[in-house]
Design a protein that fits this description.
heterodimer, A: 1023 residues, alpha/beta, seven-stranded mixed β-sheet, six-stranded mixed β-sheet, 19% strand, B: 472 residues, mainly alpha, 71% helix, globular
């Protein structure tokens, strides 16, 4: 309040600034203890701007917090800072110990949008859904705001008083009885601090736990090489990729790079096009992208791998020691039946023919033996050093997470731990079922939990400390390939919080250097190089050295496959992961890329399994009423709604973690103080033992129904509907097999639908100057949803909640239509992102009675919110149904003072729409205009590629390209002239500005089936 | 249920050359005055408990509608089941339903007047009143269904500081003009016709208040031949003006659908099909209301079985037209070779909304076919029941057109299933509250039968009888 000459007070005591009053305030409003008394909740705008200004000014220069530094308002405007103009800062996020380089867009000191950092070789400028949703989590009003002692709000001073005394005692005993439980960190500086802290606390023990880890991969490398190494794939050089229960394009820490590289290798115009095989139990992105996907129980996948090996030996003399003859493989088995034999033979043939140009990969659900075997196979096929390389593994020395958790609980039970410091994580929620962490935790005398949220674990700890968000503190992280990512703070902590480094510094004591200096020291850069590293977000030195590890002799590999029992597979959810994002409304409401399900987790079962269990497919008015299934593993049961998933392996039930949170917040579930919120979904951690991903269990249908909120009707519906979908899928989402595809036949796909000459009722508008257009490559799109969340973040799109999604009122401007084709037991999948097609002859414009939607000169179909009265006629007449209507006030929650802080996350360049107004994709008109103005001021034309829409920017495989169609040299013009290009529903004379590039599949000639779009179906489309 | 007059007609010997009288029971001018004015005056002397009960019921439902609309204004149109892709749900269904009903009145008063169909006199006042009230109900829905109700006036071409005109290409704007013109002309026409009868009421009034009020609204009618001369000229002109409107209103309403490119809406058959449907539903509603009213107030000699018979025949004719339109839609969907169009119709009949489609077909196509049988036409209870079926069927027709077409349009990725909420039901019910409140007030305070016109045909009837007698 320094700048405010008029000081308002609430009482004379306050005006006096008496210590009693300050104490009182500290008790009442703990977060404010060290703030000016004059501010109520969270951060006021003025305070916020002051702090922002200061942190911005100081950001590049020096550190933030554990060297005491004053934050003062700016007295003069620094260079390059124009109020209302965005600045971009490099930052680094990390998940499960793997860094993601990001760039933050910041307006007036507040970050509002996350983009990928192009300097990060993994990101390459793209992001996944989690990075996109980080902004919402950052401004989440439910984030922890104050330290808690025994669940009661207190302040850092109280904690420090306790801790200083306590740590002194511990240091006296060299940390005897002290233990740390941390989630894995990818920050080299964090490891440095950890080492420092453990120097003076030699007897203290450090445990790392993560419920969903890649430990099988680690163990597999240990089996194959004798030591853990990290595998790096170079898919750009690959011609054949075989994914065994894989996650290359789904949950792999380098999936962004994999997607980008593989999209390049899949270009059908190139001389030869990559081919992909996936063998998996649940339908993942890997399966969606595969030319051949074999649904198979996870437990049977090793058998299939052995079958491929057997064919390699039999047909191509590529035998690997320890392999098994085809004759000795289990007979009458799903993994060795005729269909599987055929595919395995084809895979073997492809692998043999593409020596050194193939990649075999197994997912984290597969056992260490499978991983080890795949290392051997990759070597045998000559891939190592070409498509598969190895680096050091930073986690090489640590035990598996399952083991760490067992050890910790054993140590506590043995009475060896009296002080437990928990860094992030939520073990009370996600600890394995066979390790009673909660009971153990209760036995520890002193417990401290440093975390972003006061979660289930915090509730059971003596102390909870709010942890600073990555945007609020200096930080660094290691990307999967070893790139050292540097993140600078872009904003002071919203509510006073400590970073991991700060917390450790209090323990180490002495004069710790400031955070940035410490990171610079770890990165071994100084001066100008350091400034550049901060600017780029990437330090010059890689943290992981390339290795060429020697393989040990392969051990015998004789898989027997899954037993007769029902197989239960566990995985992190595609939206809330292991539960950490459960309080993110964007992610909860994000339609899962396969099921299109929001706000719930389900038991995914195959249509055949449903039949066996007598579960009917719900249709018509009860289409969203799911049957219930009780799943039992080792005597523990959970009841989940059933989702009948085409392509799910028979007799395999897929469950996802991350739901059923009880201390997530008002979004994910809350049973603490204040308003109670039911948990979203069902917690399946209680079914899962340590380190287990695939278990044998039993299932039983349970009476009752449960409503599911899906944004797309279930694929399995009434016969008429299914016939209708089947008929038009190939017309809307056009595809062809590589064999039939003629790269020289221009407009081939445009002619897939025959129609008479299209004539207009009136003189058509002509466009001069720019003509914005978008191109979406359906061959590259994997349906990952990054564009959907990016659009939501960029355009202030509200979430509406489960009930409203059931009502069909979700607001996403960008949606991804998912279609299946072929056999329901093993279908092909296609994903088609649909946003406003910006039709030049827009049917919406013609019917709006108040002219609220009209055309701009550059051909954009503009939506004038102020003029809209909400007749919704435009949406009825939109054949793409991309218009979204504000049926209710979807921003109501911001009226609550507690939630006001979330308003800071809005993009100030985009209007927040009121109730009763129609909205839709604008092609990110705010971004267009920003660049337009820049170009005009500079007196130059707008450079191609300078305007990037939010969806295009986020897209990992770079399937979305935006640009000026009027410029024949622009990338988008070229794509519109690509032989694969077509416009959806062009026969309606809409002249859409969006074009799609048809999907080209590349089936193995021995396995080729006709692609769904053959002449007969395409000819029927709209005459 | 059949009164003595009905029995007279039923029991009359089969003779196609003889038509039953339009006014029966040896009525005189005075007895007609007594019969019609008696309805309203009866309430004055002995307030009927039945009326109060019904009015109380209707008024409470209207009050409920008020509460629902207030809640709607406060919360947003999300209180209804409208969603994506079914952006128009029950409000628009109800709108088209009520506009349709509003068709019978003007058709009877204008077109049948020009065609010199004397039988119209027994029912025209009643049908016109029903038209006005139905238009009021219809007008409510487009106004409250928009997202920002407080800006709904932007649909009118009012000069404003933004220099913004509405979009004249939009059928919704045409709708605004069509419906408001229709409402205005119908009201004027109705009021014009009322003037001589209001004067009769004035002259018969016993209370001062009634005398003043009826006097005010009969604007000095004395029944002089000059008055009659002017009156009949004006009536004829208004009839001429109203005639094209009967056809145009529902044509324009059908454009809301036909001009859109949605499969299932985008169809040139819509204008005639909608007009036929509107007349169909309008007559059904007249029957639904008239049958109880004539027996409660003993007007069977004025609204005779012959009137009902003619109306059932019109229902039969228009019902068959509607049935033909349904069949033709299917034929064209197949014949056009447009897969989207074909799918919409298959989906209507056999998709998730099959029940709505077959309810519509049973009520609209099958049930009126029973009117081929004279026995059924003369069974008042059955006629009444069938008329209600037709009302239900016509509501479902609009539901089928609006909701099933929208629920599954071009891209399967955006398909959905519409489910109404409690507020959808309450709003529909509430509109009936509005309708019946107005209707019950009409019964109580205004001549429900056009006295002067009945007198006109009575005179003609007596004259014909006299001249026939002279020939013997």
């Amino acid at each position: 309040m320094q700048s405010n000459p008029k000081k308002h007070w609430r009482s004379l005591a306050e005006l006096d600034g008496s210590p009693e009053f300050k104490d009182l305030v500290a008790k009442e409003f703990p977060g404010l203890a060290d703030q000016d008394i004059g501010e109520m909740d969270g951060v006021t705008r003025r305070r916020f701007l002051q702090v922002m200004g200061a942190s911005m000014a100081l950001a590049g220069a020096t550190s933030c917090r554990w060297e005491a530094e004053e934050i003062l308002p700016l007295t003069s405007r620094p260079e390059n800072r124009v109020p209302g103009k965005a600045l971009h800062y490099a930052s680094a996020l990390q998940r499960s110990g793997h860094g993601v380089g990001v760039t933050l867009t910041s307006y007036d000191g507040r970050p509002i949008k996350v983009e990928g950092n192009p300097n990060d070789p993994i990101s390459g400028g793209s992001t996944d859904v989690f990075a996109q949703a980080e902004i919402l989590s950052f401004y989440d009003p439910d984030r922890s705001r104050t330290p808690l002692q025994g669940g009661v709000a207190t302040d850092f001073a109280a904690f420090d008083a306790f801790w200083d005394a306590h740590i002194k005692g511990l240091k006296g005993t060299k940390g005897a009885g002290m233990a740390f439980l941390a989630e894995p960190s990818g920050s080299p500086t964090d490891s440095f601090l950890q080492t420092q802290a453990l120097k003076s606390l030699k007897s203290a023990r450090w445990f790392e736990y993560e419920p969903v880890s890649r430990d099988n991969e680690l163990e597999g490398a240990r089996l194959a090489f004798g030591d853990a190494y990290r595998t790096q794939y170079n898919l750009a050089a690959a011609k054949v990729v075989v994914s065994f229960d894989g996650d290359l394009f789904t949950s792999h820490p380098a999936q962004l790079k994999h997607n980008r590289d593989w999209a390049a290798a899949r270009q059908p115009n190139a001389e030869s096009m990559g081919r992909m095989y996936t063998v998996e139990s649940r339908f993942t992105t890997d399966g969606g992208m595969a030319d051949h996907r074999v649904p198979m129980r996870s437990g049977d996948v090793p058998v299939f791998l052995a079958l491929v090996e057997a064919f390699l030996a039999e047909d191509h003399s590529l035998a690997l020691d320890g392999g098994v003859d085809r004759a000795d493989l289990p007979k009458a088995h799903a993994a060795t039946d005729a269909a599987a034999q055929k595919v395995a033979k084809a895979i073997a043939k492809d692998l043999a023919n593409n020596s050194g140009r193939s990649v075999l990969a197994a997912g984290p659900n597969q056992s260490a033996e499978v991983h080890a075997r795949i290392h051997h196979l990759n070597a045998k096929l000559g891939n190592v050093g070409r498509t598969v390389t190895y680096t050091e593994e930073p986690a090489a020395k640590r035990p598996t997470h399952a083991q760490a958790m067992r050890d910790l609980v054993a140590a506590i039970s043995a009475g060896e731990v009296n002080t437990l410091v928990i860094i992030e994580g939520n073990a009370a929620y996600d600890a394995p079922a066979d390790v009673d962490f909660k009971a153990a935790l209760a036995k520890v005398e002193h417990t401290v939990h440093l975390s972003l949220y006061a979660n289930e674990t915090s509730a059971l700890c003596g102390w909870h400390l709010p942890r600073a968000h990555a945007f609020e503190a200096w930080g660094d992280a290691m990307a999967w390939d070893g790139t050292h990512l540097i993140g600078q703070p872009t904003i002071a902590p919203l509510w006073g919080a400590r970073s991991f480094g700060e917390f450790m510094a209090t323990m180490i004591g002495g004069n710790m250097p400031a955070a940035d200096k410490m990171i610079a020291k770890v990165a071994r850069v100084t001066g100008k190089d350091w400034r550049k590293a901060v600017h780029d977000g990437v330090a010059p030195k890689s943290l992981l050295k390339a290795k060429t590890p020697a393989l040990k002799a392969p051990s015998s590999f004789r898989p027997v496959g899954a037993g007769d029992a029902m197989e239960i597979t566990f995985s992190a959810d595609t939206k809330v992961l292991d539960g950490r994002f459960a309080n993110s409304a964007w992610l909860q409401e994000l339609p899962d890329f396969m099921t299109k399900l929001t706000w719930d987790n389900v038991a995914m079962i195959a249509p055949a399994t449903a039949k066996k269990l007598g579960i009917e497919i719900p249709v018509g008015s009860t289409a969203n009423e799911a049957s219930l299934l009780s799943v039992t593993v080792d005597g523990k049961s959970a009841t989940l709604p059933v989702y009948i998933m085409p392509g799910q392996a028979k007799d395999s039930i897929a469950l996802a973690f991350g739901y059923g949170r009880t201390r997530a917040g008002v979004i994910g579930g809350w049973d603490g103080e204040g308003d109670q919120v039911d948990p979203v979904g069902v917690d399946v951690y209680p079914l899962r033992k340590a380190g287990v991903f695939v278990a044998a269990g039993s299932v039983k249908p349970t009476p009752g129904k449960y409503p599911l909120a899906m944004t797309q009707e279930h694929h399995l519906m009434d016969p008429i509907g299914m016939a209708g979908v089947a008929e038009r899928t190939g017309v809307l989402l056009r595809e062809e097999n590589l064999e039939e595809f003629d790269p020289k036949a221009n407009d081939h796909f445009r002619h897939a639908v025959h129609h008479p000459k299209l004539e207009s009722l009136w003189e058509e508008k002509s466009y001069e100057g720019n003509a914005w257009g978008l191109s979406i490559d359906l061959g590259a799109c994997n349906g990952c949803n990054a564009c959907v969340v990016a659009c939501q973040a960029e355009n202030n799109i509200p979430t509406v909640g489960k009930t409203q999604v059931i009502h069909g009122r979700e607001m996403h401007w960008m949606r991804i239509d998912r279609y299946f084709a072929g056999d329901m037991d093993a279908p092909e999948m296609g994903a088609q992102p649909v946003n406003c097609q910006q039709c030049e002859m827009a049917p919406c414009e013609q019917v709006c009675p108040v002219a609220a939607t009209t055309h701009s000169d550059d051909g954009l179909n503009d939506m004038v919110y102020n003029r809209c009265v909400g007749t919704r006629y435009c949406a009825n007449n939109c054949p793409f149904k991309v218009r979204r209507f504000n049926y209710l006030n979807f921003h109501k929650e911001f009226k609550d003072p507690h939630n006001e802080v979330a308003k800071l996350g809005f993009n100030p360049e985009v209007t927040v729409r009121s109730r009763g107004v129609m909205e839709k994709c604008t092609y990110c008109v705010q971004r267009i205009n920003e660049k337009k103005i820049e170009a005009k001021n500079a007196g130059r034309p707008i450079a191609d590629g300078s305007i990037v829409t939010a969806c295009a920017q986020a897209c990992p495989p770079q399937a979305i390209v935006f640009g000026d169609k009027a410029d024949p040299t622009s990338a988008v013009s070229k794509l519109h002239n690509n032989p694969r290009a077509y416009e959806m529903l062009a026969e309606l004379n809409l002249k859409p500005r969006n074009s799609f590039l048809a999907k080209i599949r590349n089936p193995h000639p021995d396995l080729a089936m006709a692609a769904p779009t053959d002449e007969t179906t395409s000819h029927e489309g709209g005459h | 249920m059949s009164s003595q007059y009905d029995l007279q007609i039923i029991q009359a010997p089969e003779d196609p050359t003889v038509r039953p009288d339009l006014v029966m029971g040896g009525a005189t001018f005075a007895s007609i005055d007594d019969a019609v004015a008696g309805v309203a005056e009866g309430f004055l002397e002995k307030p009927s408990l039945v009326w109060y009960a019904m009015f109380g019921g209707a008024l409470s439902i209207l009050a409920m509608l008020g509460a629902v609309v207030a809640y709607l204004l406060w919360t947003g149109v999300g209180v209804w089941g409208n969603q994506s892709p079914v952006f128009w749900g029950w409000p628009i269904v109800n709108f088209v339903f009520w506009v349709g009903i509003a068709h019978a009145g003007t058709l009877i008063s204008a077109i049948l007047f020009l065609l010199k169909q004397d039988w119209r006199t027994g029912i025209n006042r009643f049908a016109e009143a029903m038209t006005i009230f139905a238009v009021a109900c219809a007008g409510l829905f487009p106004a409250i269904h928009v997202g920002r109700i407080w800006l709904v006036y932007w649909l009118f071409p009012i000069p404003n500081q933004m220099s913004m005109w509405p979009n004249f290409r939009s059928p919704l704007l045409w709708d605004v003009f069509a419906v408001s013109t229709y409402a205005t002309i119908s009201l004027l026409f109705w009021y014009m016709g009322l003037i001589p009868d209001l004067a009769t009421f004035r002259d018969r009034s016993t209370s001062k208040l009634r005398k003043v009020l009826y006097g005010l609204f009969s604007i000095g009618w004395t029944g002089s031949s000059r008055h009659w001369h002017r009156y009949e000229k004006a009536y004829l002109i208004l009839a001429g003006l109203a005639t094209p409107l009967v056809l145009s209103v529902h044509t324009v309403v059908s454009f809301d659908f036909a001009v859109a490119q949605l499969p299932g809406w985008h169809s040139t058959i819509f204008p005639p099909y909608f007009v036929a449907g509107a007349i169909f539903s309008g007559f059904a509603m007249v029957l639904t209301l008239m049958i109880p009213v004539r027996s409660i107030f003993g007007l069977q000699h004025i609204v005779t079985l012959r009137h009902l018979d003619v109306m059932t025949k019109i229902i039969l004719a228009t019902g068959s037209m509607v049935g033909y339109a349904y069949a033709m839609e299917f034929f064209i969907a197949w014949y056009s070779g447009n897969p989207y169009e074909r799918f919409v119709f298959e989906n209507r009949a056999f998709g998730p909304y099959w029940w709505a489609y077959w309810t519509m077909v049973s009520c609209n196509v099958i049930s009126p076919q029973l009117f081929w049988f004279k026995k059924i036409r003369q069974n008042i209870v059955l006629v009444w029941v069938i008329s209600i079926f037709v009302n239900i069927g016509m509501w479902f027709e609009r539901f089928v057109i609006t909701c099933t077409s929208l629920s599954r349009d071009f891209l399967p990725g955006s398909w959905g299933y519409f489910k109404p909420t409690a507020f959808d039901f309450l709003t529909l019910l509430g509109s009936f509250g509005l309708f019946f409140t107005l209707f019950l007030l009409f019964i109580r305070f205004l001549p429900i039968i056009a006295i002067s016109e009945i007198k006109g045909i009575l005179q003609k009837q007596n004259h014909n009888k006299a001249s026939q007698g002279g020939h013997h």
